[in-house]
Every structure is written in structure tokens, then in C-alpha cells.
# Entry
Amino acid sequence: MPGWPDSDMSFAGEKSIKAWSSDSASAKVCISWGTGNKLRLSYLHPRTQEISSTATPSKVVEVKVGSVSSHESAMRRLVYDSLPAFALLQNRKQQALRQSQRGLPSDWWETVLQYSRSISVVLGANKSSSGSVLNETSEMEKRTLLRAIWDLLEIVYVDKHASSWLTEQLTDWLERYDQVLSNVEPTVNSKLSVLKPKLINTRFPEDDEDYWSSLASALSIGWLDVVVKYLRMHGSYQHDQIDNRQTENGLVEAVAVLISKMPRLQQSSKTDTVGVTYTFKPEFSKAWERWRNQISKLVTSVFWLECTHEGTANGLKQLLSILLGDTNILISATTHWMELLVSHVLFVKPFLMGSEGLLSLARKCMQLKPPIGIDQLTELLLAIIGENTEVVLVECRKHFDPWMVTHMLELLSAKNGQAQSFLTEERDEFDGLSLEEFHRLVYAQILSSYPCTWQLTPFYLASGTHQGQGLLEAILLMRPVSSDSKVSAKVLDICRMYDLHAVAERYKRMMGVYYWKHGRKGLGISWLQCGRDYSRLTYAANELFTDVSQASVGDSGRLQELDSLIDLLGPQFEGFGGLAFLHRFRDFKGALFSFQEGLANSISFDKQVVAGKTAVKHLMQLMKDGITADKFLLPLLQDAVELLNFSGEVLVSSAETNILLLRLQNLTITNKHDTVLDLSSESVAKIRLALGRNLGRAILKD
Amino acid sequence: MMVEASPLLRGTEGVPLTAGVEVWRIPQGGYVDAVRWMPPATAWHQSIATALWDPDDGTFKLQLSSFSFEEGPSIQEIASWELPERASVLKTLPFSSQQAIVASASFAGTMSFIITKLLGPDVVPPPPILSSPIHDRIITGIDLQSDTHDCISVGEDGKINLTQLTESHLSHTCLIDNHGITSFMDVCWSSPAEFVTAGLGFSLQWWDHRRSGGPVQVSNKWTHGRGGGFIHMIDVHPSRKHVCVVGGSNGVVLAWDLRWQKEPIQLCGISDLRGQPVTESMVESDVWEVKFDPFSLSGSSSMSSKVPPVMICSEDGILGVLEAGEAPWEILAEPCAINTLDINPENFTDVICGLEFESLLYVKRSS
# Structure
């Protein structure tokens, strides 16, 4: 199919092919695969250079590789519409396999038949299939051809009953798909479409040789209704004629009646078919004999001598010879070997049952009517008729895209145990993969490279015991991380459905890091929480703290912003390192702020004391072991100085002061050589002084 | 181009449709980002607005189409414009008795507005008025106020912007900017001055744009113990402004009645308010849209103490109606996600949805 990449082009992902630059100070060009068969060229502006208004800014361009096709949307429609039937079949298969260890039940083919019919309907829905109608005839033909092969596979490989009604099945099939049999030589269908417009304007079509040859062709492949209809357009039916054409007309009518009385072996009588339906074989063979006798009688009748129109006499005789199964006439009446095959099963071997004799008959027909030029389908058709699974697979891979191969494998193994083991057998040359799984992997990889179909891959990968699961995990983790919540929800939903908890967790962490890096702190924390990434959450909390500690105490706006963020972290995360710290720090800062506010606004003394004590309480929470990292201790103690120096009342008890002193002592001992903490500075001395003074006051008060 | 709908063919195995519901699928040539009913010119001239993404050539389209229902539904394009960026939200509203607004927001922080005569025969809508980026990247939610026509927008960047529009001019005011520290996922007006926002961790905030500073009320404290998760969509009841419903991750649908409750009512979700797993939940993955459903309003639910029924659509392909204390009504289960839904404001029986498989879904409930 156009627009679908060759398999070596379709690998999904953002894998960079090459980053090229001529010199480090100048611009860089990166080439990488985009989605589908797009190549992404990124021009990166050099970092060192000042971005001047004249310089070209960095830019990303996507180039589509291969033919630009307008039919991708039609192809996607096929992908979407065929999915439910395939998924349903896989479900049922798993159910059936769970119920019995010996493999699929004997009536499994009926389930596959349902599947096959649903897909055939999807393939036939080419008119209103998508917003953009398949308007190009070549595209329509391709779709019809796909359906033709699909339906023939169904007749031979799936439908167990089909072998009993093989003649009718093949005739029906040819009627639907004669027009796509060959694109080099004319078929019966094309012959008739030439004749049709001519007939409307002609009073006496019997004078035209094409009329008779077209009728013979149509009859040879069993299009009885067309033949009867066209025969009744014969000139002898016209009333206002000078010549006496009664005998001639009688002969035409006799042939038409004989044709419409042709016995047919059918499962049930269809209203629109011409002929007499028999469902029971012995009855059919009796009727067949009777009917053949009637034809022979007519052939030897004396009325032919009275028929004055030479064209009519010859034409009718030719039709009768076809009914009698004259091989030479059949050869000349048909154009394609498939047509010849159908004419043989119709008129020469009407009792052919099953497909055993069909292959040799088909080979014979091909010899009698060798395909003109290189007919690509011949091998495939022959292989299907002969149930030669290996060749069918090879030919389908040659002619059709992975969609067809993946979906039709189900047909091949419907009732044919041999084909089933051929397809599911684990092969060393494929690293232990079976053919079935191999083709699903190929198809899934193509689906994964398109932005609208990647999410369908699990349907084709989940059943794979070997590499399917691995590829699925890789596809999920290769999804570009972006703000499109639909994509992230999809990835997580797939993980939920297929129990890929580890992948889900990893993806959530990737999302967390993405948002954090882009300054969406809340989103980052939320995703990290979902992914239970406690080490990064701790890092995030530390960074938030740095943010807070850099803000001046009076900057309540900043604190309020973070407030919602700290709230977001939720109480259940309090036990985790920096987060617990941040919670308590927020509370301490809040209390300290109201204390300071009280000082500035000179509120009542009692209230002032309460606010101060609350702040101290929160400070002591922070001083508990393992809550506060050393590097944050000093700023905290600096904040505490204000509380320690409160003149009205002793806010910090002697025990509490001792704890603070102990912490400061530990800090100075363990970090003696730390230049960052700057323990020698004045501020430490200030803290020591405040602590010492407060201790004195507290002891006195006690 | 005329696109005809095909009646939904369902195999024997398909989920049986509830009696009295007809469903059609209308294939589109691209991914449906959003779909909304347009205010109709007359009852016979229904039309819709669609935001489409064409994955083949990477273009984004805003399309207005007439919607006709003769021998099955079909849509016919009236006008369409290429958008510079992918649409993230789409909203429609009557502007006056003669006009309608179509507002769309994008992944790049821009907005576009169309003010058009009501779509009937021979109406040629004007091209959209495009704004400069007013948010840093994606706008996650917008809402149009029905009286003032003000447009409120929120984004991942933590900004809340108010956009006022006249026939040809847009003016923006930034109400809140928390520099991406928290993000908002959706916004909904509850009165000409008040609105509700939601986002991270199943929290709601009530705001009044006349008051500066933080939100008037915050719901965080009510949902302690829920852990991580996101709200995707809010709806405030059109006549009962104190009733509000949200949908988000893990199939969660919560309803609040501001007058009574300390805690929200949970209508759906895989775990309850305390994080305990719930055995049967109609939806198990993200709920993409919630909408109060006037059609399903039964006698009992018209009582003012009860939260009215809500229609939802979800990532796992469920379209259904939820009501507190009633069994959920699963209208249909699709093989793909239902990303967006809209109930026809003129005819509550009609629902239009956007499917992941590049189609629209038209649902008609028999009245």
C-alpha cells in the first residue's frame, strides 16, 4: 500500500540517527526519525553566540520520506474497523484454549468464519469508509483484490461446508471478483461492459458477432441470469418484422428456457439465481442427466434446418455445446484460467466435491490457458486452491502489506491442523518466535510508528509469549512525553489492562521529571507521587525548600504559592525525608510569620505569646532526629534568634534550648571543614549568644 | 463534502444497546480533538463545531458543519479554517439572539474566537480572530460566561486569564499567575463573577474575579487520603450553582453540593474516598468529560437535595449516565476511547461524541 513504509523504514521512536556539526561553535544539525515515515531535521542554534536578530533561530523541519499518499486515512480506517473482530477472535481463542488442553475445538472454524465475514464486510465498505472517499479507481481495485483473496481463503481454508457446494461457491466468487482477476488481459466482465451500451441502441444484436461471443463467455462462467436476459433481446422477439422468424425465435426461446432450467447444487435456494436448486446430491445427479438429455435432443432437432439466420444458429449451437461441456468451446469462450476453471466445474465436472481434484484441474486449466505476461496472482491463487500454506504465506507477503498477512493467518489455521502447527511452531531461525507471532510483531511495529495507531499494538502483541510483551513495553516507554494528557492516559490505561505495573510506574516517573524540568512543579510532584518515586520527591522537596528559604520572611505571596504545593504533597507523604521536613517547615514559617506580624501590629501580649509558642512548637518538630538536613539547620536557627530574643516572655524552655544547643554543637563538630555552611561566621556566634542568654532566662524562670 | 453516517453494525457479541437508543458512527478524515453543538438558527438547522487534527500532514482544522437527519444523520461542511496550533478545548455559546460564539484554545497557549450569525442556509461565518499566546503552552480549560460572554482560561502554567471579547477585539487580564507551581486542568463559571478551577490531586478551588489574591474556598482538605490523580473536567449545574461535578483519573467522578457536604459524593471510581478499592465501577480509566444531563432527570432527582444525573465519557470507551443512589446507565461501550461529548442544548435526546478512531458518534435517545 502506498504511504505505508517499507519495513526497514518503519521503526518507531525518536532514535537519533546522527548529530552532525562541522565545528562546535557553529550551528548543529540533527537528523532523527519522527513519527511514521517522517524524517526530522533539527537545526540547533549555537549556544555560545549571542542571538542576534539576523541569525536564523533554531528550527525543526519534518520531511516525509517516500510517496506522499492521500490514502493513509483510508488505510487507518481499515486498521480501526478490523480491530474489534480481531480482538474478539483472540478473546475467544484464549477462552477456548483455557477450556481444553488439547487445543482448539473441532467447531473452531465456525468462529473463524464469523471473523472472516466481519473482515470481508470491512474490506467491502470502501465507499463511505472515511471522510475522504476512496475515489481513485486503482485504490478501489486494490481493496477489491484484497477482498477477493480474502474471500477465496475463506472458501478454501475456513468454511468446512464450502467443499460440498464448491461449484456454487466458486461461481459466486468469480461473479464478485472477475473484474480484478487480471489487469493485462480483458475478462468476461470487461467484455460484457463493452456489449451493454451497444445493446441498448441495437435492434438486431444477433448480427453482431460480439453479441454471441459475449453470451458464450457469460454462460461459460455461469452467469445464467445475464445470458437469459440478453437472449431475450434477440431480434426475433421483435413483432414488426417482414421475415418469418418464428422457428428461429422458437429455438432462441428453447435455449433460454433450458439455461434457466439448469440444475444447481446449492445449500439453499437463493431468490436471485437462475436455475433449479437441489440440495440433495442424488436428486441433483438425476436432474442433471435429464437436463443433459433435453439439450442433446435439442441439438439433434430438425428445426435447425429451418433456421435461416446463420449467426443465430451458430451462436445458439455454441451455447448448447458449452452446456454440454465441450472443452474446446469453453477454452475459446473464457479469457482467464480462473474463468476456465469455473467453467470446468460448472459444465465438465459438476460432481466435483472437495478440493482434492480442484488443484489438478486448476493446473490443467492453466496449461490450456496460460496467463499472458506475468500474472502476479497466479501463484497465489494456485497455492490457495491447493491449500499450500507455505506458498500462500510467501505470496501474500509479496503482494500485500502486513495488515493482510497478520489478519489472514487466522484463516489459514481455522480447520487445517497442519497449517496451524506450521504457523505456531517455534522456530530457531526466528529466535524462538513462531511465524504467527513474527508477523504480528512486524504489523505492530508499523502501527507503533503512527501517532494515531500506536495504541492498537497491544491487541497484536499481548498474546505473544516471547517478544511481544517486550516490544509492547518498549513501545509504551518510547512514547514522546508531552502535555497531551490523552497520550499519557492511554499509556497508563494499556499498562492497567495488561498488568504492566513496572512500566506504568516508570512512565509516571518520566512524566514527573518532564514536568519538573519544565517548571510545572505541582504537576511534576503529582506524577512523581503517582510513580512513587520517593528519591526524586525528596529532591523536589529540597529544591522547594531552597526556594522558600531564599524568599525573604515577609514575602508571604511566595509562601502562599508553595502552600498549595505542599498541601498537594498530602499527609500520607509526611514520612518521606524532605517532604516531612517541608510540611513542618511550612508550618513553622507560617507561625513565625504571624508572630512577626503581631510584633509589627502590636497586638495584645497574650496573643503574641501564643503565636510565639506555636512557632517554637513547630521549630522543635523540625529539630527531631532525621527531619532536617544539616544544611538547613543554620537558617532555621537564625530564624529562631528572633524567638529567643523576645523580651516579654521566655518562649523557649530550658529543655528546648538544650536541644537547640546540642544540634548546633553537632553541626559544628561534624562540619568543621565545610566551607559552604560557613560555621565560623558571625551569625553562628549570634545564635550561640541568643541561645546562651535564653538558657539563663529559662533556668531562672523554672 | 458530504459524509454519511453508517448505522452502527454490531456483531452478536457486541454489548447490547439499551432499548430506546439509536447510535450512528460518522467517519471523519482525521482525529477529533473536540466537538460541540452550535446554537441553532431554527430547530431544523442543527449544526456542529469540530476541531480536527489531520495526522497525515500534521494540520489542525476548525470546522463548522450542518447536521441533518434525513435517512440517518449526515454532516456537511459549511466552513473550515486551518488553525496554527492543535486545539485543546472547544466551547460554543449563543452571543445574542442572532449570533453565536465558537471559542477554541490551543496547545500553544493561543485562543481563537468566531462570532458568527446563527448557522442556517446561506450564512457565511467570518474567519476566527486569533489571540497572541496568553498562556505558556497548553491551555487546559476555558469557559464562556453565558451572560457576560467573558472567557476564562486556565493552563498548566498556573495562570488564570480573563478574556473579554467584542465583535472584533480581544482584551486579556491575567487574574492569577503562580508560575507553574500548581497547574489547572479545567475551569467552569458558576456565576458572572465566580468560577471553579480544578487540577492536581482532586482539589477544587472557588474564585471570585472581583477579589484579588487566593481562592475564596478550597476543597483540598476534603479529600485527604486520596493520593495522586488529576481532574480533567468540571461542570457546574446551569441552574443550581452550588452543585458541581468533576471527572478525572481512575474513573473518578465526584459531585459537590456546597451547601451541605463536608465531603464530595463519589459517583464512580476504582477506589473510594479513603483509597479502598471499589468492586464495581462502570469506568476504570480516565473520565474525559462530565456534563449534567437534563434528559435523564427523573422525578426523584429533581429534588433539590439530590445531585442531578451526570453524563460521562471515558478512555475505556464508556458513554453512560451516573446518579447518586441509582444504578449507572451504561449507554454504550465502544472499542476505543470516547474523548469528548456534548448534549444538544436544544434537544436533550441528542448527544454527539468524538471517538478515538477518527469518527463522530451520534446518539439519539427516544424521548
Residues 1-16, 128-134 of chain A have pLDDT under 50 and may be disordered. The two ends of chain A are 91 Å apart (CA to CA). Residues 188-334 of chain A form one domain.
